[in-house]
Amino acid sequence: MMRPLVALCLGLLAIVALVFVWPDADREPIAVRDPLAAPGHTEERGAAQDAAARLPGARTATPLDQGIPLTRLAPANEITGLYVEGRVLDGTARPIVGAAVALFVAASDGWLTDGQGSTTRAAEKSTGLDGRFALHTELLGDHVLVVEHPQYPPQRLLVATHDRTVVELGEIVMRASLGLAIETVAAESGATLPGARIAISPVLFDPLLGAATAPRRLAITGADGRGIVYGLGEGDWRIRVEADGRASTELEHRHTASADRAGELRIALAPGCALGGRVLDPRGEALPGALVTIRGDGEDGVATSVVSGRDGAFRALGLPLGPLRVRAESIAFEAIERRGVTAAGENPLVLRFAPGAALAGLVLDASSGRPLAGVQIRARPERGAPLVRAGRIAHPSAESGADGSFGIAGLPPGRFRLTFTSDRHLTLVSEALEASPDPDRSRSFAMLAAPLVELTVLDASGQPLPRAEIEMLPPDHDGTALAELLDRASGALHRAHASSGGDGRARVALRERSGRVLVRADGHAPSLGEPFVIDPAASPLQLGSVRLARGATLVGVCLDQDGRPVPGALVEADPVGGELPRWFARVHADTAGRFRLGPLAAGDWELAFTAAGSAHAREAARRFASTRERVTLTEGQRLELELRAR
Predict the structure, then answer these.
(1) pTM to 2 decimals?
(2) Of 78, 301, 455, 638, which alpha carbon lies 20 to 30 A from 427's?
(3) pLDDT over 70 at 62, yes or no
(4) Which of 426, 447, 468 corresponds to the end of one domain?
């Protein structure tokens, strides 16, 4: 009786072992696909079936994990700063291993004032076996995520934090592109040039994202003089080729991306030379960071630019034979230029800046006559055109010392107006002054005490509204995005800010005699007041009460012409018409193309979006115009809509 029972138990144990313990022999191995190969040649059987089953035009595909564990990357303890995580896949939803992922501080509209984009790299890392990455930074605010791999065009996403600590980006898809094959030869003999250095960068970049995120591709030619630059997207690219003993050359190339065939170029390099030297300031000391540009002495020719080091030294290679034109630029001094320079002549070459003209004086309090320390002084050309030096807009400035004295040196000859700013005084703009090598240091400039503006902020029911934000704007600001950009482009100084107290009251110290007040609070539509002018002797100015209405909310999705979501799109709402001025709104869509705008004031609005990764500023403007749509909002309304490119 016991033997059949024992046999039955042993049989059951064997079945359990086969089901739960024995390895899954039918499981497909992880397929590693060459992104440059034609589809169907290197696909594993399971990947090919899954790719064929996917709908065409889908933004992302379902990940094929195939045994790769997906674990939560965010730490369990409390996170400070910003934590960004996501996953990088190729066009067949396979993980991309070793992709470089970097997080930059997003450039603000400051590109309009200083000509520079974001260069602050907040964090960087490479993707793991499952294509996952996680980046952490203590720097707050919006960031730009740049994903690069040698065989794919780079991806750029703007990470809008919206006060979030952890941002999950989901899947980032990179699609293969062969790029460009370049053959380098000697101009006089046609012999191939191995070891030539190739650098390719976009002709234009999106100024709102900054120059630091512009994709750049590098390659070195092999023994046959050929080099392939992978992962170029469609658009206009600038190609620079350098080789030892050869004059460097540059050209522009319009590239059409292709996943199965590389473009080809043949570039001939003429014989060249090298030139070195030092850059000195007016006192004869080494000047680091100076921009030295060298080209042939004719009107045409490729420019080679280098930056002087800590000891002021520089060395440039790949220069054409014959006379050269050398130009040195610094943000602090007027540029100097030497013509007819030869590599066989003065080498090393010494470039010394001239001291230039200057403006100086004393800053005093208008009522007491006491010197004012810590006042910011900026010199602007009389005619208003910006002063451009070393490829950047220069802002010659100084700060008054304990005795109120200041001096701004290194100015070009001409007339300038001085702008004096202080938190406790009205902004003062001087008359036009002539800069000279020996300025009058006894000239005094008197600043008036800052006048006050008082107001009370109320909610829609008339109750005091605490913690409302008050900002003073120029009187001609109409609340549109264009007005905001123009205001920043004009070099507008920092605006006065304040917050309302528990009783809704606020007091703001003005820096200008005129302006208009912008009031914002959570859950309420912003209020932009009428322009006003204040008499400093009649301070404080009573603006009465400002009542904030309930705002409307816009929720939607950005779609391209094929109806696919546009991740990271820049969405903007601008007020149109109406008697009362309203404040514009701007936000970035998430990875699914969805966005939320609000609260917005009631009235007519124009909505539009552009892709966050637009390669050209003019292309971004075209896309922005092609998505424009007008809507009418009412107080407290919630509106859902689709923004589709036409």
Answers:
(1) 0.59
(2) 455
(3) no
(4) 447
